[in-house]
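During the no-cost extension, the postdoctoral fellow (Dr. R.K.) reprocessed legacy sequence entries with the updated structure-token encoder. One reprocessed record is reproduced below for audit purposes.
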Amino acid sequence: MVLTVTDEIACESFIGFGVEDDGWFYAPENLAHGITQEDVALREGRMGWMRPQWVRMFFWHQDWCPSGDWETFTFDSPNMESHYRTLDLYQRLGARVNVTGVEWGMPDAYGQPERAARGIGALLEHLTRAKRYTCVRDWTLTNEPNGAFVELGYTFERFVEIHRLVKEEFARRGLAVNIVGSDDTDGFEWFARCVKDDAYFAAADLFSSHRYLRHTERSKATQFFEDRLGLLAARSPRKPFVVGEFGFQDERSGTFANPLMETYPYALWTAAFVIEGLNRGVAGFSIWCLHEVQYPGQQMMHYGLWNFKDRGWKPRPVYHAWASFCRMTQAGAKVRQCVSSSPGQVAGAAVGDTLFWVNQGDEPAEVRLSGFEAKEVRAMTEPTLKGDRECGVVEEVKGGRFLAPAQSFGCAR
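Re-encoded structure tokens follow.
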């Protein structure tokens, strides 16, 4: 079979691959579990090796404005100190951070839009000026607004109003922070309203959606990408589309638990989802989420690329797939479309000087590369996933050909 890398540019300037890291790892609720300096070094060592380019991070209002008045700030709270330590890491790594609001338990959070806009402006000014975090470059009002925001009784019109006011507030304060639009989940209606509304479209600099697929319905990813990218293509100016969260679920999955993420197929599905999105023009991906971690309220988040301390920080198969995407790409790279002669078995996508591929089939496939020169290929299968650094099998690409083992993923350079 043939993977042909064309001259067609799917994305002119890729934003990056990254993770959801909500900044609470260094907070008291996690440190109480016996986190040591060795544990910290392990976490930060993995992040330094992975080199994520785009990180999404929750900023819970309870951590920095617990009164809910949008004027009384606790920028020195223990949870904020944990966020700063997290931001320190991403600042060192040169990552781009998306500050995402969550208003759990905050009464009438958006009842006074002008005050909310001023408070949000104060937070972003504190982060970018007082704390000097140049890594903070994006802001999202609230996680999955077509869920919580609507359930709190707010209208789409209020959503538009707040974004317009925040854009004005950022301009007044001279803040160079991008506004991430929509951030919807489950369904197309909210995203479509955001893109079609002229005032909202003008306020947003890029658009985001989330998608969690039943593992038996992974083919629905095609419609997810087509709907959103097609709608954005019809608007001017062209604005990037990013996947803010994604994953795969079964009957055991919920908000905090997803045993499926510990399996090898999850790594294959992740590679296939990303490769399709790249070829269609997605400008960035953030996976939910970095690792198991204690959330506020003594709730353990069990999604993640690796386990918590009680299970030895063990990496999951998807860790190796995601590390490859992060490590082998750079922000700003061009994405060229890649066409497969057997898309039902092997698919590929080219980001800069790296061709990513996945073979979801039960048989090995000889792959011939066209329009792309590579010297070596790294292939990962379940038996070859070891440790938390490079793994898999590296072989020379001979005559533009390599063997993609059954149920494997990898990259060629």
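The CA atoms of residues 17 and 285 lie 5 Å apart. The longest strand covers residues 2-11. The remaining legacy entries will be reprocessed before the final report is submitted.
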